[in-house]
């Protein structure tokens, strides 16, 4: 309620009408400048696309589109920084009034007229003179929240939506271990090493400001988010082993989510005493609680909103007939998940990731084929544009950002610790996982994963989000260099690394299936581990059955009709929730999601028993008639169906082959 | 260079660290609030989509999606206004300091820390207390520039891109007359009537502020932009006569562009003397010059950037193989046209309209079939979302906008003058046009056009752009009511009006072709007018030939190869510019754009002669083999090809029919 009125006698009295015109002109000028700045980025992206085309056309694989976008960004940054001298605008006066708080809205009284100002942020004292000097450079600097709220969501959603679920679920355990344990380990290793580095800098007097241990941990968290887009693009092109692909992709998708939540809980670390930045068990516990709460909250929100609303909406309306409405609805639902999570104080990016996975799992099945294509293409486009925009902005910002703090010791330390942190993530975890995995992560896979630990969009977005303090500015500058180095050197050397590590390329879906078959044959010699394997997969199988028999039929058109899976007493409810398509599908494609259970050979064997035993109807066609499809026919089908279908068909084929083999063995 | 430092001793000294936290919390709170606000709109759109589906499913045509979006917006507006009471935030202090100018950037020194504020805009003195009171209502109010720079461009681009060029060009003359002459007439009629109205209000003392003649003209300009989305959607569904559709659609698309430029040149009207708002010939001339300059500049920029860059880029790169790159490039090119126009001081919306038309004319032919679908679907989706967002925001703003000025006399006057302005546009112009048109605009068509003069997104965006003065606020409130009334009453009554005016529905492409045939048969009785017709079409034919023989081959893969159309001396250049596809296409689809010339029966007759005479190769297959296609076959083809293709094929069929008939007559 305390509204302070500050009266300042204007020294130069100006005519009100003239001033109005000046203000209008200024606004127009500013708008034109904004348009021109945005145009620079659009032209940058256009240039990038054209060069990418050239590279793809010439099958040139040393530089990925993201690396290229960075190079173009760098060039434009140099031009903006050193090439262009904008004549100083006399009218562009900056006033400074000293008041006792910084409200979100400020009213300024200019000779009787009120102007409204909104808070943009704090700037450091030494920047004050820069504000006038480099208006143009400041203009091309985006609000950092743009990255988090506009550019990152489509990228993360697309990652979730295009996740190859079959391979993902097959390597689920390892991916979770790398993403959660690995990222936390990496974060703390990097944090500790950097703290040592900072101590050293303090000793030799190279530190120009505060740098606490929490800052080091924060740095560890943000550079632990890997983003191997470059590597995965090459993997896709060369058709590298699917398990390696799944491990890398799954890890990078999930560790982005982990890193976001981890960094925000590190920021939230606040010991009781005013003298902060000391160790305190309670505060650590609280931070850990925040981590768990925010992560699980975002996860639950992403999964729940989608699985509670979207599939039902798409299932029971006949929206299929209106593809435009369907696509629009799908887009809006996904966006609203992000907004809901942000509005609830959770992390929208994490929610949108799990939203993407859930949409792919349930809603996708209810969409008409046209909308399946449309949504895929839409998010592919958004992902492409956002990603290249972020990377070209990264290049640009190396020159246009005004408060870079490059410290040689810190940079060398960061590179070393990033390397060691990645090593401490991959090798020990792989060793531990290999104790439990039948399908071992071989040492060349480990080296490849180590090498593919690029840093990208998420690391950048996290580090640019707050560049107010000295510590954060140094982190930001160093992070930029880490991203540049990893994307150019590690990304560019992927093909060499692959051939150097003798990792086989050119694996297609069929060959991969035969690999699953191999597991089965080598299965019997690992018989002592089978029981433990079944134990660990027990929870997963339970979930699978629940999903297949109840969730899928309730939420989508696929799966067995509920009338068959629910007990007889729920008959009316079951009939009301089952869509007509489910009955139609019953005979044919009932195993759409058998891919989920295929995480080990012996599980797919038991799968056969389970379905047979849970089926009370007895009317099921057994594997025989479908199993009769020969591989030529299957290949034909694969050529006609899309990628999503392909995976499903491929799996079914294996299943029935396994089933057949088992019967032969019996 | 004049940096003023204002020192204010803080009355309540606060701890710096505590304050930091408070600022951070405030920013977080504000972000959450923003997310929640956006979520409201997303849910509104979702609700709209679901209800639209229901309406479409039940074939309920009294309420279009835009009308529905407005109703939902209204309801949410009521809830926000009267239903929710946000507890006043104590921390949300608004400071007021009196200084002598309003710079774009303001630095505030809070106990040694500098905070940066950016200018949001001027607010009137009586609003100052509202700023504190209705923080929440102000939050859901978007920056008006969002409409112009983000939401309107995709709508306008989509209109240009989806223009049915065949019918558009056939009625080109009439459309241009309605759009240019009609809009200007309507603007001045409305302006004059409203000025009378304002004079009356001044007499009886109902005017609470300044209201000049230029304001009246401005009002005339903004309510002259028609937007019959509702009507056209019903036309599409009922397959109403294509000429009526083309007239309405073409007029509304172009008069949006005219209205934007007209309103900005009225704003730019500034007589020499300081005592403005008086009539002055020079200033009027200057405004007229601005109108011409901005319109032709935007037009030239839209056409030039696209036709100079995009087709070449898509033609000579083999981007066709990478649809994602192609679509991304197409999107970026279109966006950069908008930005370029804005950066140059032209009107981006106008540029983007002509960009859309040009893209459809040239670039579309170079795209791969997948990208043609993708781009269409992408812009369809963007258009759908933007349109519904604007209409639901319109509904919401009726209650959440804080400075409504509803004046009964002004409102009644506005409705009357809008009606009279539309009448003064349609009837006299139709009479004049009918003197020159063979295919008369019948009186029931005229009534329908009169009735279909809805006001929509453009009118709203123009009126919300500036609501600083009393006059503008009154205009804004009145405009909202005009939009509501026309969309609900005129939009809802379209079906009734159609049947009442006995306008035939259920016209499909084939029947329409037979209509062209009818023109030919009624041709001979209008023989005295034929020569004038040919005169007026002379320029157009010249352009067509130039376009068909040179521009199309240079810019796209279609059309005859340049080696055939260019003189022999240009041989090497021609060979270098002609794409391999052009030779392939030579035999078959050479008349892809014959639709352009089909604006009258006799022109299509002469067309036959022209192509024969300009063809020096002599290798052309004549109309005979293709003309042999019977209509059943053509129908089959139409079912397999998309809408765009359909139009082309349909036209070709007529052409050859006409050709054949001519030969029979000879």
TrEMBL record, chains A, B:
GO terms for biological process: regulation of intracellular pH; sodium ion import across plasma membrane. The keyword Transmembrane helix applies. NCBIfam families: b_cpa1. GO terms for cellular component: plasma membrane; recycling endosome membrane. It comes from the Eukaryota. One of its GO terms (molecular function) is potassium:proton antiporter activity. This is Sodium/hydrogen exchanger. The chain crosses the membrane at residues 38-55, 67-84, 146-163, 175-201, 288-308, 328-357, 378-399, 405-424, 470-491. Residues 48-499 form the Cation/H+ exchanger transmembrane domain. It is found in: Cell membrane; Recycling endosome membrane. Its main location: membrane.
């Amino acid at each position: 309620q305390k509204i302070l009125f500050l009266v300042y006698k204007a020294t130069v009295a100006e005519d009100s009408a003239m001033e109005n015109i000046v203000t209008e002109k200024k606004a127009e000028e500013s708008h034109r400048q904004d348009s021109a700045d945005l145009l620079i980025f659009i032209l940058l992206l256009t240039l990038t696309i054209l060069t990418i085309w050239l590279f793809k056309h010439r099958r040139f694989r040393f530089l990925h589109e993201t690396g290229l976008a960075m190079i173009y960004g760098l060039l434009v940054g140099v031009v903006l920084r050193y090439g262009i001298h904008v004549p100083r605008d006399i009218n562009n006066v900056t006033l400074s009034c000293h008041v006792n708080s910084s409200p979100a809205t400020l009213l300024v009284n200019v000779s009787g007229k009120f102007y409204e100002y909104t808070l943009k942020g704090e700037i450091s004292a030494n920047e004050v003179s820069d504000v006038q000097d480099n208006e143009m450079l400041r203009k091309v600097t985006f609000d950092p929240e743009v990255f988090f709220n506009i550019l990152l969501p489509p990228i993360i959603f697309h990652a979730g939506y295009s996740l190859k679920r079959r391979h993902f679920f097959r390597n689920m355990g390892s991916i979770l271990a790398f993403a959660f344990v690995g990222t936390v380990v990496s974060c703390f290793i990097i944090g500790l090493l950097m703290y040592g580095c900072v101590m050293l800098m303090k000793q030799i007097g190279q530190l120009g400001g505060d740098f606490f241990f929490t800052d080091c941990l924060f740095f560890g968290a943000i550079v632990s988010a890997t983003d191997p887009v470059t590597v995965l693009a090459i993997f896709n092109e060369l058709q590298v082993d699917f398990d390696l692909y799944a491990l890398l992709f799954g890890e990078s998708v999930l560790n982005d989510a982990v890193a976001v939540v981890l960094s925000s809980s590190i920021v939230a670390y606040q010991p009781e005493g005013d003298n902060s930045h000391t160790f305190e068990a309670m505060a650590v516990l609280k931070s850990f609680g925040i981590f768990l709460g925010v992560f699980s909250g975002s996860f639950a929100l992403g999964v729940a909103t989608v699985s509670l609303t979207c599939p039902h909406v798409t299932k029971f309306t006949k929206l299929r007939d209106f593809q435009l409405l369907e696509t629009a609805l799908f887009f809006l639902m996904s966006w609203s998940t992000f907004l809901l999570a942000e509005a609830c104080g959770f992390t929208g990016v994490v929610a949108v990731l799990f939203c993407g996975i859930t949409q792919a799992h349930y809603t996708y099945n209810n969409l008409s084929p046209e909308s399946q294509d449309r949504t895929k293409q839409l998010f592919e486009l958004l992902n492409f544009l956002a990603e290249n925009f972020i990377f070209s902005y990264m290049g640009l910002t190396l020159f246009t950002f005004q408060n870079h703090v490059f410290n040689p010791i810190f940079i060398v330390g960061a590179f070393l610790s990033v390397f060691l942190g990645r090593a401490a993530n991959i090798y020990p975890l792989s060793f531990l996982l290999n104790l439990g995995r039948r399908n071992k992560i071989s040492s060349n896979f480990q080296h490849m994963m180590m090498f593919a630990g690029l840093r990208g969009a998420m690391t950048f977005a996290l580090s640019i989000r707050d560049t107010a303090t000295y510590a954060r500015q140094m982190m930001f500058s160093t992070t930029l260099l880490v991203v540049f180095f990893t994307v150019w050197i590690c990304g560019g050397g992927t093909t060499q690394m692959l051939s150097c590590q003798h990792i086989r390329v050119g694996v297609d879906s069929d060959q991969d299936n035969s690999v699953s078959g191999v597991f089965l044959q080598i299965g019997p010699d690992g018989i002592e581990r089978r029981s433990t394997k079944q134990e660990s997969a027990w929870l997963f199988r339970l979930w699978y059955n629940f999903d297949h028999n109840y969730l899928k039929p309730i939420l989508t058109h696929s799966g067995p009709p509920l009338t068959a899976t629910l007990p007889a007493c729920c008959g009316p409810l079951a009939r009301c929730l089952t869509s007509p398509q489910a009955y139609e599908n019953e005979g044919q494609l009932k195993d759409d999601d058998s891919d989920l259970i295929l995480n080990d050979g012996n599980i797919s064997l038991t799968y056969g028993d389970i379905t047979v035993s849970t089926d009370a109807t007895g009317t099921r066609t057994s594997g025989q008639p479908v199993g009769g499809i020969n591989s030529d026919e299957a290949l034909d089908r694969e050529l006609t169906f899309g990628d999503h279908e392909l995976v499903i068909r491929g799996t079914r084929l294996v299943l029935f082959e396994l089933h057949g083999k088992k019967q032969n063995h019996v």
